[in-house]
Please model this.
Amino acid sequence: MSAISLDEARAILAERNLIAVGARGDHERRRRHGGRTTFVRVFEVHTDAVPSGLPASASAGEIRVTGTPPSVAAAVASIKAARALAGSTPLSAYSLADLLDLAGSTSKSSPTRRSIACRTRPPRFARRATPARGCRG
Model:
């Protein structure tokens, strides 16, 4: 994988021709991955309204929780509900920026930040023999 220079990144950000930017992105994707493109169906649920079941016609490859939770407790509750909904389907939720805002700190050593990371991690990691660094079993 190749990186672009800071000057190239600035030039892309300054480019007003979105078709040219898209064409450059498509060229890079093809260079890296060839002509093969895959798509995944994403079923989005809002953090305040996670349903108890998927519609019969849904065939999602990913479940995504959208919106900004009002609190850490609400984020944890939404993730648990979405995990139950998703089953073995991949689940994603929230942006790191939103979680850091909830933590009220950008410090890596913040106890609140560690707590959020421990409480929102996927169950497969929660069942580790040794807890993740900074998390209690």
Notes: The chain is about 45% helix and 10% strand. Residues 47 and 77 are 9 Å apart (CA to CA).
